[in-house]
Amino acid sequence: MDNIDFIKIFNNVCRMFYLQRCGCRLSEDMAGEFSHPACHTAAARIYGTAQYADVGGGWHDAGDYGRYIVPASKAVADLLLANKAAPSIFSDNLNISGPSNSMPGILEEIKYELIWMKKMQREDGGVYHKVTCAKFPGFVMPQYETDELIISPVSTAASGDFAAAMAMAYRIYASLDHAFAQDCLMAAKRAWNFLETTPCIPFTNPDGIITGEYGDDNDSDERYWAACALFAATGDKTYHRYIKSNINPAWAADLGWADVGAYGNAVYLSISNDVADATVKSAIAMDLFRAADSLVEKSRDNDYGVFVDDFIWGSNMVVLNNAMLLLMANDIQPKSEYTVCARRHLDYILGNNPMGICYVTGCSDLSAQHPHHRPSVAVGRAMSGMLVGGPDQHLHDACAQKHLGSVSPARCYIDDAESYSTNEVAIYWNSPLVYVMARLLAAPGSAD
Ligand code: G3I
Ligand code: 9MR
Ligand code: ZN
User: Of 36, 40, 64, 373, which one is the catalytic site residue?
Assistant: First the structure.
């Protein structure tokens, strides 16, 4: 694939976030057939109460129109890290409405999500887990999902992820939009203070709500990530003490929505040497190399140059998270085997896989054409630039069960809009793709 195509794909992959916007009008000029009036603008009811709150804005999570703090935080983190590592690659022409001259388009877009996230914070600093209707709508455009919006209860995983994402945002926006950045930092501290006095509140769907759960009953990695990001933002020793007594080598490769310890590590590694502790830094770096070396080793034995031991729901995210990890290791200790292996991971996503399918919509004739994505189904054409979930060997939906009963794990994928467990799209699946493409495009030679 030549560079020009690669950049076009990259821009579409970035633009997906804009097209997932909730709560504002997408004009025909900007969004073409995916234009729609402002959606989900009604006040949302706080679960179990008669109180309403304005939680408008943010990005629709996926093929559904829910907005969930946990996966939103992963998406924000990936995009912030990508922008930090390869700023020159983000085109100013992402077709985002209301571009300002004060910051690059991608940061403008992330800000849109962060503004929504702040609305999800309660007075006491705790952060609501999600806002959705009680159940999923049919395949309609977003303005037609008009059931009551319900804000699900606070969880400590959401509060930790929120604190981390806000503190990371503070560092990036401080020089671009001072007031906004300060506000992010305040919000992060309030969430942290809430966590300090609150033991784990796991999340499971409350009675009557059946939308995405993003359940997590272990918040220790979210707290660690928050501590790392707050320490990086403030230099405050309280956070440093927390980091030192909670650091965990088992988290070295955890860049998922539920397991986020490696984001904490990535942030710690970015702290300047006069503030960070050299022993902690080198322990984290060693864990990172161990994880990256093991990936390189295991990927070598695979025809397609990737290693996936369990094709779970969203296995394409796992492949891209692994590529992210390799590129992060390469930042600390450059090695061509890291970048070559990362590039092969991207090739797998773009078509060099047992299905021979390009898992990103709108790239080529090989691209998935029937994603489980409500606007795409409603319009009758796949929106471009979206990564589908990919093979799920556990056959989590009826369509997959019907068609994939006897195929090998890496082929448990079907390009059918009914198969939400293999063919849905999601903001936090696109975000590691943005990271990996941005890095490989920015590194001369590794993208062609
Ligand atoms: O962690 C276990 C692992 O130990 C085990 O080997 C494996 C095999 O069963 O399962 C793993 O748990 C899986 C979990 O994801 C973590 O990866 C569950 O089976 C699987 O059902 C679960 O899937 C999640 C799915 O929602 C259902 O809850 C996906 O990760 C998550 O990406 C997906 O997210 C949905 C939202 O709910 C709604 N919006 C769309 C979005 C994308 O499809
Ligand atoms: O469309 C929903 C998708 O976004 C979710 O990831 C998925 C799992 O929670 O559920 C989908 O909704 C389906 C529902 O769970 C069962 N009935 C059919 C719905 C899809 O058409
Ligand atoms: Zn909406």
Answer: 64
